[in-house]
UniProtKB/TrEMBL annotation:
Molecular function GO terms recorded: 2 iron, 2 sulfur cluster binding; electron transfer activity; metal ion binding
GO biological process: P450-containing electron transport chain
Native source species: Flavobacterium resistens
Keyword flag Chaperone: no
UniProt entry keywords in alphabetical sequence: 2Fe-2S, Iron, Iron-sulfur, Metal-binding
Protein name stated in the entry: 2Fe-2S iron-sulfur cluster binding domain-containing protein
InterPro entries: 2Fe-2S_ferredoxin-like_sf (IPR036010), Adrenodoxin-like (IPR001055), Beta-grasp_dom_sf (IPR012675)
Length: 105
């Protein structure tokens, strides 16, 4: 089953993405699959913050782990709604999630 996730890119364009819930993907991988400008240089290990995004609506996400918190404490452009895309697995609970890509640094 796919879920709909909306992602606003750095130019303000909103992309409505169909995200498969049966492939063990995360938000960073979804962005890369749709060729959105997300680096993911650490390969999803919460070590680079190049997949940082801002959560724009009230969808229940998995709790932030220690590695993600530590990386965000050192990253640029962090806001109270910042998350690392690589740390958000795509599940049916994400239906309707709206995100915005953080600026590159």
């Amino acid at each position: 089953m796919d879920v709909l996730i909306k992602i606003k890119d750095r130019e303000g364009v909103i992309h409505e993405l169909q995200a498969p819930t049966d492939m063990a993907m995360n938000i960073m991988e979804l962005c890369k699959a749709y060729e959105l400008p997300v680096e993911g240089t650490c390969g999803g290990m919460a070590m680079c913050a190049s997949c940082q995004c801002y959560v724009l609506n009230d969808i229940a996400l998995p709790e932030m782990g220690d590695e993600e918190e530590a990386m965000l404490s050192e990253a640029f452009y962090v806001k109270s709604n910042s998350r690392l895309g690589c740390q958000i697995p795509i599940t049916t609970d994400l239906e309707g999630l709206e995100l915005e890509l953080a600026p590159e640094y």
